[in-house]
Design brief:
Blueprint lengths: L5 E5 L2 E5 L1 E2 L4 H10 L1 H5 L1 E9 L1 H4 L2 E8 L4 E6 L6 H14 L2 H12 L1 H4 L8 E6 L4 H6 L6 E10 L3 E10 L4 H5 L11 H7 L2 H17 L4 E5 L2 E5 L3 E7 L7 E5 L15 E2 L4 E4 L3 H20 L1
Parallel strand pairs: 6-7, 7-8
Antiparallel strand pairs: 1-2, 3-8, 4-5, 5-6, 8-9, 10-11, 11-12, 12-13, 13-15, 14-15
Amino acid sequence: MTSFQLFSLRDNECHELHPSQIALERDLQQVLEHHLEPLLKVRFLASEYSTGEVHRGRIDTLGLDQYNAPIIVEFKRDVESTVINQGLFYLNWLLTHQAEFQLLVQNRLGAAVAGQIDWSGARVICIAKDFARYDLEAIHQFEANLDLVTYKFFESGLLSLSTVASKRRPGYLQAKRPPATRRHPLSISQALARAPQESQARFLVFVDGLYEIASDLIVEEQGQAYEFGLFGPLGRLFVTETQYPKLMVEFYCTPNELEIGENVRTRVSKKGFQYSLIDEQSSEQALEWVRTLYARAERG
């Protein structure tokens, strides 16, 4: 049995929420069916679906997932092994009665959805209080798409669901992944537009500082950056393309050439090193290094 504890942290107090028992297996089924889409990402189609006189069974819940794949959900209130075999038994019936299922989808969700059913993704979700260790390993021997999910109810109306084992048919997940799209780098103008306003203002101040050092110090905008230099680039000013864009300057030399101390935070790059312009002080420090490099380039 898996140990799982849940706590409530309110008003500087820690209170453990104790598990609560559900009375009947049908109660468990009704709770999850009522919230099937947010809990399992499955659209509800039918409950206690009869498999006919010959098969003589009832599927707990039938649904359709976000990929339009048929889903069978089987519930067991306690620790139960037979739920896996029962679910696979019903899956075999479903795959041999595709026309019946398609008609059900058409009546509930419309003809357009019924015409897009993905039978390769047909899946069984088994939900129980817990599963035996050999069940968790045994599912990998099956060819079907299968999920084992444990549940636990807590006081205050809380419910936890945990997928403890999952199996997919070979190649199914890869087929569902969208094709990789090539990411085009942002221009310096686009990157600046995404950056915080203080970074944008610091960018303009830094560029003005370059012009004050020498009017011909700016070379030109080069895609994602402004390169600056005299008789060739000395470095570049750019904005990082990250979740939190920030202003950076890269010098085409080593920190040792500028006698930068070990306490100054820099990052090694392919052409030299990078320095983050996080405030007015760091910007002034970077401009001082530009003055040093510019003086050396003039002396030549």
